[in-house]
Design a protein that fits this description.
The complex is a heterodimer. By secondary structure, chain A is of the alpha/beta class. Chain A contains 25 helices and ten strands. In chain A, α2 crosses α5. Chain A is elongated, with a radius of gyration of 29 Å. Chain B contains 14 helices and 13 strands. The longest helix of chain B has 16 residues. By secondary structure, chain B is an alpha/beta fold. In chain B, the strands form three sheets. A six-stranded mixed beta sheet of chain B has the order 6-7-8-3-9-10, with helices on both faces. Chain B has a four-stranded antiparallel beta sheet with strand order 2-1-4-5, covered by helices on one side. Classes of the chains: A alpha/beta, B alpha/beta. Chains A and B meet through α6 and α7 of A and α2, α4 and α6 of B.
Chain lengths: ~525, ~325
């Protein structure tokens, strides 16, 4: 974050992207609003006619409104997958309540004598609705549409979680990368959009009663027009669609690097890690980013594209232990090194698959593996002190913590205490330096980029050479924090691009360069 | 023109209208009079099917209303409501044009009809492009009447048409309505709880209580020959004023004692003035006597004393 560009510079630089996202945002808001009006207004009219339905209908839409937006989007995924459709459905459900309620209230609050006189003059029910009730309740109905619009502009930011785009891409990318400018570049246009639309609709509401009849027809036309914004970007689609996490999108060793080093040119959507793998499996996405040992790789039958130009730094896992603990219990080092060379990428993926996907407990997976490798021994009597093992919230880390715990208990007389689920890197590392835990497993790349925050020049010099990166972090950790990196276990949990196995084989794409060649081929 | 035979209306457990029968002749103005909840409004609304009768037969212009489409029926019956019910989002012109529009009259015919009606209800043409809320209550009520008359329906139903106006406006407009030329040939059923209004506008009054007609007849008949306790009590509070209003000089001319006066500059009137107006005339001119000339040319001079003596004599006579 040194030499951070100003917000203005950032927005200027990204203006094209901001505009795209803004148009997508407007599109998402208005398509859903259009459907909400088409369904909501007639529904409101219906329940104003058949009062006994009003309580259940309003109650139901009320409940929809109370579902947290992120949860509602979550419910949509199994039903509708990812992308604009589930986002629009979720936004539609949110917009429904204010529109139904205001239509109902507006119509039921039209002066009874006016309706009575209309009836007394021989107007049919349909004529009364069109000529009396709708025009007279129009400002209340518009107020409902106005509320729904503002709600939708807000909720639409979350649409980026499921790959529907919009200004949320910047907001959540910014949060993931701790980049304030990026957050603001998404948040400010979103806020301005909400204020602007609110103002516009408030003007519409105050328009002379007389012109309301025109406005009533003008409104859907505007909606359709604004909705079309969303569809425009789809005209220049590339052969494949990539889904990347907000974090990956903004990282130098992520999408930015892919563009710079490989000259990758692919249509992308931003999507959350939680749904990405499944979306690739269901052919909603063709290329995703992910972790090379992720169990879902196996679960969803994906393959990793070889990083042939080496832009992803190595993330080899190794135990990081407090130096004084190693001195106090010298036997520990050899015990911990027993895992070295036993787990490669595919084995780790397999183990993760059992935990993440087959829902086996990390302890069982760890024990089974150690038994297979003939490393498992029954615990000895523990009477020589305690070693505290930490782990991040990550299936893989739970498995490693369980293995180390079993190895220590089986080979030494030390007691083991595990403190699993210590959030992210920062929490684990702080726990270690503050003598809350004695060891945890860390990745060389994370040590380099996140903990040491190595300057660009160093990162470039080390490149993707795993020995050099390991040596650098090993030396620096010992010097700066008095922490010892033991030997790497052998697997590399780095960023990777993945595709469906079948598609990759059909297209003969095995590396990122291969992907780029395929995309550039006309 | 309108006939109701054994009409009953039951809402849930309450009988709002209990076996009512009456006829309204063409051009006749009848008033349904009674306290609130007596069933008078329900009776009125059954005539244009805003409320459907539970049983009994209603016919308008010789046709059973059950056999006519409700919308069709209502377009041919003028309807005036208490709170005028003008469309707030329509201009005055558009409001008046509603029924002709529904009947798909040509535009030119509608425009002509609107300006004709405005003249008839004594309103200036320049209000046509205004909205109802820009007019006074009395003006709105007149527009309400003009709207009801727009398609020239032979029958007019009026539900407390002046109920929302203040007392003074109501008094003036009631008088004005009773003299409007356009209403002369209409068959009108009017609902009111206001006794004076009923006396002013009704050729015949139907006094209602608890869903039944207690008594019907000409205003003076109800006043001087109340059929029962309810009828006599109903009129008691305003009896004096009603009497003065409903008795005309011609009715008591024969009982008047010609008084000797020496003045020659007495106010002169014909015999078609009500007693009430005669007393007003006396007061306004600060005179003790007025000079009354009947149609056959006979002249009598009368003061307060002789006017009241004449009224008493008339009442005596009608009781005998």
């Amino acid at each position: 974050m040194n030499d951070a560009p100003s917000l203005f510079d950032f927005m200027k630089e990204q203006s094209g992207k901001i505009l795209d996202q803004l148009l997508q945002h407007i599109g998402l808001t208005f398509i859903s609003l259009l459907f909400a009006v088409i369904i909501g207004v007639p529904l409101g009219i219906f329940i104003s006619r058949k009062r006994k339905f009003s309580a259940p209908v309003l109650g139901f839409t009320n409940i929809l409104q109370t579902i947290p937006s992120i949860a509602l989007l979550g419910f949509m995924i199994p039903l509708l997958g990812i992308g604009p459709v589930p986002a629009i459905v979720a936004l539609f459900l949110y917009a429904l309540l204010p529109i139904v309620r205001n239509t109902f209230t507006g119509i039921t609050e039209v002066d009874k004598t006016v309706v009575e006189s209309a009836k007394g003059m021989g107007m049919t029910n349909n004529q009364i609705l069109r000529k009396v009730e709708l025009p007279l309740s129009m400002s209340v109905i518009l107020a409902g549409i106005r509320t729904a619009t503002v709600i939708n502009v807000g909720v639409a930011t979350l649409a980026s979680y499921i790959g529907a785009g919009g200004l949320g891409e910047f907001i959540f990318g910014g949060i993931a990368l701790n980049n304030t400018n990026m957050i603001l570049a998404g948040a400010i246009p979103a806020a301005l959009l909400a204020i602007f639309l609110d103002f516009l609709l408030s003007r519409l509401q105050k328009i002379n009663l007389k012109k309301v009849r025109t406005a009533f027809w003008l409104l859907p036309v505007c909606f359709v027009l604004l909705s079309s914004f969303y569809l425009l970007p789809d005209f220049y689609r590339s052969k494949m669609l990539a889904g990347f996490t907000p974090e990956f999108m903004g990282r130098k060793d992520g999408y930015l690097g892919l563009k710079k080093v490989y000259d990758l040119n692919i249509r992308t959507v931003v999507i959350s890690d939680a749904v990405m793998y499944k979306a690739a499996y269901e052919k909603k996405l063709d290329v995703i980013d992910g972790y090379s040992t992720d169990g879902r790789l196996k679960a969803f039958n994906l393959v990793i594209l070889k990083d042939d130009k080496g832009i992803f730094p190595p993330y080899y896992a190794a135990p990081v232990v407090r130096e004084e603990v190693l001195q106090k219990y010298p036997e520990l080092k050899n015990v911990l090194n027993q895992l070295v060379g036993k787990i490669n990428d595919s084995i780790m993926t397999e183990l993760n698959y059992r935990v993440d996907y087959l829902k086996q407990s990390p302890e069982k997976v760890a024990k089974d593996f150690l038994m297979e490798q003939s490393l498992y021994k029954d615990p000895l009597i523990a009477n020589e002190g305690t070693v505290r093992i930490g782990s991040k919230i990550l299936g893989e880390q739970y498995i490693l913590a369980a293995m180390y715990s079993m190895l220590i208990k089986g080979n030494t007389h030390l007691q083991v205490e595990t403190k699993t689920g210590l959030g992210g890197t920062k929490i684990c590392f702080d726990a270690l330096t503050n003598n809350q835990i004695d060891m945890y497993s860390e990745y060389t790349g994370t040590g380099l980029m996140v903990i040491l925050q190595a300057p660009d020049s160093v990162v470039e010099k080390l490149g993707s050479n795993k020995e050099k990166v390991y040596d650098y972090v090993q030396q620096q950790f010992l010097k700066k924090y008095n922490l010892e990196w033991l030997k790497p276990i052998g697997f590399n949990n780095t960023y990777a691009l993945m595709m469906r196995k079948k598609q990759a084989e059909d297209l003969k794409i095995y590396s990122i360069s291969g992907l780029v060649n395929y995309l550039n081929k006309k | 023109m309108i006939s109701l035979q054994n009409v009953v209306k039951i809402f849930g457990n309450t009988t709002a209208v209990d076996d009512i029968s009456f006829e309204v002749k063409e051009g006749e103005n009848i008033v349904l009079l009674g306290t609130s909840g007596c069933g008078k409004t329900t009776t009125l609304r059954m005539i244009n099917r805003l409320t459907e009768a539970s049983s009994g037969k209603i016919s308008v212009n010789g046709k059973n209303i059950k056999e006519v489409q409700p919308e069709e029926l209502r377009r041919n019956i003028g309807y005036v409501l208490q709170h005028n019910g003008l469309f707030p989002h329509y201009t005055i012109a558009e409001n008046i044009a509603i029924v002709p529009q529904l009947l798909k009259w040509p535009q030119q015919k509608i425009a002509n009809r609107i300006s004709e009606l405005l003249e008839q209800v004594h309103l200036p043409q320049n209000i046509l492009s205004l909205y109802p809320q820009q007019l006074s209550g009395g003006q709105q009520q007149r527009i309400g009447l003009a709207r009801a008359l727009a398609a020239d329906p032979p029958v007019l139903l009026m539900d407390e048409p002046f109920g929302a106006l203040d007392a003074i406006t109501r008094n003036n407009i009631t008088k004005e309505f009773s003299r409007l030329e356009v209403l002369k040939n209409k068959t009108i059923v009017l609902v009111t709880h206001d006794i004076r209004e009923a006396f002013e506008l009704g050729d015949r009054i139907l006094l209602m209580d608890k869903g039944k007609i207690v008594q019907q007849g000409k205003p003076t008949e109800l006043l001087f020959h109340p059929k029962n306790q309810f009828a006599s009590e109903f009129f008691s509070t305003q009896k004096m004023q009603l009497e003065l209003n409903s008795v005309f000089l011609k009715d008591i001319f024969q009982h008047l004692v010609n008084e000797n006066t020496n003045g020659n500059n007495l106010p002169v009137t014909d015999e078609f003035m009500s007693l009430w107006e005669a007393i007003e005339l006396l007061q306004n001119n600060h005179q003790d006597f007025i000079s009354i000339k009947n149609t056959s040319g006979e002249i009598k001079h009368a003061g307060y004393n002789s006017l009241f003596t004449g009224l008493e004599a008339l009442k005596q006579q009608s009781h005998e």
